[in-house]
Design a protein that fits this description.
The structure is a homodimer. Helix content of chain A is about 20%, strand content about 25%. The longest helix of chain A is centred in the middle third of the chain and has 18 residues, at about 250-265. With about 425 residues, the first copy, chain A, is an alpha+beta fold. The radius of gyration of chain A is 24 Å and the shape is elongated. Chain A binds a DNA duplex (21 and 21 nucleotides) through helix 4. Chains A, B: Belongs to the ARF family.
Chain lengths: ~425, ~425
DNA sequence: GTGTCGGCTGTAGGCCGACAA
DNA sequence: TTGTCGGCCTACAGCCGACAC
């Protein structure tokens, strides 16, 4: 009948296979999830202690509902600006409609965190896959006129090698997405000059995922040689969700009441973390928080760097100066450390970047730099627009000076490791 | 470029025109909204007093998130089982993705409802349009193979009359949807035997709205002769929305906290009412509530009727018997009237119907019936499956007996008027 | 090395009346 | 009266190398 899928596509094996149930209850492939979440996202390990910031949670909810965090809503039921919690569970998910990745965390508030033995919590983990590539789609890639142009080194690194004795060399690829749905593509090496292409099956994928030029697609080869694929929507596409379920005010209250009730009764509560929606992480490893708050001397005028994700899904550091200190909302959330630093950014293109950040988000440039700043760091020098990786020498120096300043093991919680996985292309 | 709409369609005038902003802030066409909401949905007038039931609100949220109303969540912050409120504002909306209709109500809790003068609130209003038709789509209607077959009487009633001197008679129709988006269709009268069809433009509409066989489409001609169109999804398609924004527990808390805070501070709060998602209305006109609670004698064994919407978007009444009385949740919500009646239904196909209803949802069959029940109402008689409208004689009798029992004006709040608008086809 | 285009081809989208329920 | 189908035509999806940045 008319409700069945097109027969030809199904017969030729280029139609998607059966998908998971819509509920998406199981835990997703962690490598793929992290690849889609991006290089900056790391999740604290289950069983570790974390600091939960209701303000940050509300910021995420407000961003999701496209409302500013309403100033008129009181802190009701009353709740402190941060809760030390045991991270009881983390499950990885992806939105059934948009493939947007998110994590559900189950938090158990700890009543007297100071009394507990400070076990050596390990830092946050970010298992970024090694054998993967990520390409931002061009107009040609997403048009119905043709297929997908695979970057040469990407194809050679991630896809099975073609049999080049064939003319033209071609094979069928099967890649599994976050919902365990299989997608079939014809991979061919042709054209003058020769190039790798995905042809048959590609347009089905593009239309099913509603991909547009500017969105990114990524392929992974996992340990068992299985191909995985995921997508990252362009930043402009805010997954608008005016949510006809609950008013934004009620959601705001819900965040507070759920946490308040859990803290009062020492019971668990659940939150969703949307890495690509939230302006900042609001569940921070306790060790990272402690180091940032107790081991860092911040003053107005201090110079720092902070990591951002580039449009090419890579990372780069931006320079800034601390211009002020103080609570973002001293009435409702006094003595919170959430975004307690007012900052200015060196580059004029910094319009979108936050004007308030939290202590644990920055990498301070300590005394050695203030005594002897290299020319590249002065406020007046106009550097050419930096490319990913052109700070490598500085990185090395930074690590040494920070170790000297903070006592050797400060780096683990600041996520220096494994950041440059996408810059080698 | 590739992001622009198909040129041919745009040039020929069969592509949708510019739409409203995604936020959908303005108030929608009320006639169209009510047509999409269905014949049973009525909204209390702005400025009237209503009763708000948190339990019912939570039921709707749970239905939207596909969770049962969790039994483990306490009534926190504490809130009474019902709040008498002033209905401060009502705005009509439609989901940007699904066209699902919903209403936002702003409620102001009234502290001492008994002290206020009981102004004669008018009953709820349901402006169902007169010049409209609604058709459930067939497999042929939604397939890409052809167009849309318009029922003859529908075309003659709602569409502009064709010029039958042309061969074949044809015209272009422009119909506006809930988002003020215009859709263009070619309306032609052809075939052997002759019939009305929508051809060019129809498949664009079907794919844009993602209509499937079983969904319904409805057309309205308003006062100014402007054509409006709306859709009703088939019941099976639960707009699943696991809502990666807030956990269902937090939403539950949010409902309670928002209402609790508003009641405590005598301030307004906002709720969304999703007519086609909610099992029952949870904002009830105060007058309707009072009449049902204080003027109705309910006892176990009592017979009643209740109105339901049929699959054909019409209405019919089902017979039932009260089998028990009592709070649905005596621990958290004692002395609530929400679904306080346990009921059984006469027909064996009653599997989906609620086993608990509220007083104001039923039409009790009062003493005259108990003294002298007509054969059709006895529990043992097996009536043939009733069709809409075959209770007309009974209706007439019911009205008289109820007026006698309840004092003359009881009918307005029970929505007897204007119910049979779709059964005449 | 790869983004975009013109050219070509095949298929499916879509308009028609036939026919039957 | 209207749901489904076969027939038919054509627009566009989609594969190809050319060419340029």
């Amino acid at each position: 009948m008319y409700s069945s899928p097109p027969a030809r596509l199904a017969d030729s094996g280029y139609a998607p296979a059966a998908a998971m149930d819509a509920g998406e209850r199981r835990n997703l492939n962690s490598e793929l999830w992290h690849a889609c979440a991006g290089p900056l996202v790391s999740l604290p390990p289950v069983g570790s202690r974390v600091v939960y910031f209701p303000q940050g949670h509300i910021e995420q909810v407000a961003a999701s509902t496209q409302k500013e965090a309403d100033a008129h809503i009181p802190n009701y039921p009353s709740i402190p600006p941060r809760l030390v919690c045991l991270l009881d569970n983390v499950t990885l998910h992806a939105d059934v409609e948009t493939d947007e990745v998110f994590a559900q965390m189950t938090l158990l508030p700890i009543q007297n965190p100071e009394k507990e033995a400070l076990a050596p919590d390990q830092g946050a983990v970010n298992k970024q896959p090694t054998e993967y590539f990520c390409k931002t789609l061009t107009a040609s890639d997403t048009s119905t006129h043709g297929g997908f142009s695979i970057p040469r080194r990407a194809a050679e690194k991630v896809f099975p090698t073609l049999d080049f004795t064939q003319t033209p060399p071609a094979q069928e690829l099967v890649a599994r997405d976050l919902h365990d749905q299989d997608w079939h593509f014809r991979h061919i090496y042709r054209g003058q000059p020769r190039r790798h292409l995905l042809t048959t099956g590609w347009s089905v994928f593009v239309s099913a995922k509603r991909l547009q030029a500017g969105d990114s697609v990524l392929f992974i080869r996992d340990d068992k040689g299985q191909l995985l694929l995921g997508i990252r929507r362009a930043n402009r596409q805010q997954t608008v969700m005016p949510s006809s379920v609950l008013s934004s005010d009620s959601m705001h209250f819900g965040v507070l009441a759920a946490a308040s009730h859990a803290a009062t009764t020492s019971s668990r509560f659940k939150i969703f973390y949307n890495p690509r929606q939230s302006p900042s992480e609001f569940v921070i490893p306790l060790a990272k928080y402690h180091k940032a708050v107790y081991n860092t001397q911040v003053t107005v005028g201090m110079r720092f760097r902070m990591v951002f994700e580039t449009e090419e899904s890579s990372v780069r550091r931006y320079m800034g100066t601390i211009t002020g200190l103080g609570d973002i909302d001293p009435i409702r959330w006094p003595k919170s450390h959430w975004r307690s630093l007012k900052v200015g950014w060196d580059e004029s293109t910094a319009g979108e970047r936050q004007h308030r950040v939290s202590l644990w988000e920055i990498e301070p440039l300590t005394t050695p730099f203030l005594l002897c700043p290299p020319p590249a760091l002065s406020l007046t020098s106009k550097r050419p627009r930096g490319m990913p990786g052109d700070d490598d020498e500085l990185d090395s120096f930074m690590k040494k000076s920070q170790m000297w300043a903070n006592g050797g093991d400060a780096l683990g919680s600041l996520k220096f490791g494994g950041l440059a996985m996408d810059t080698s292309w």
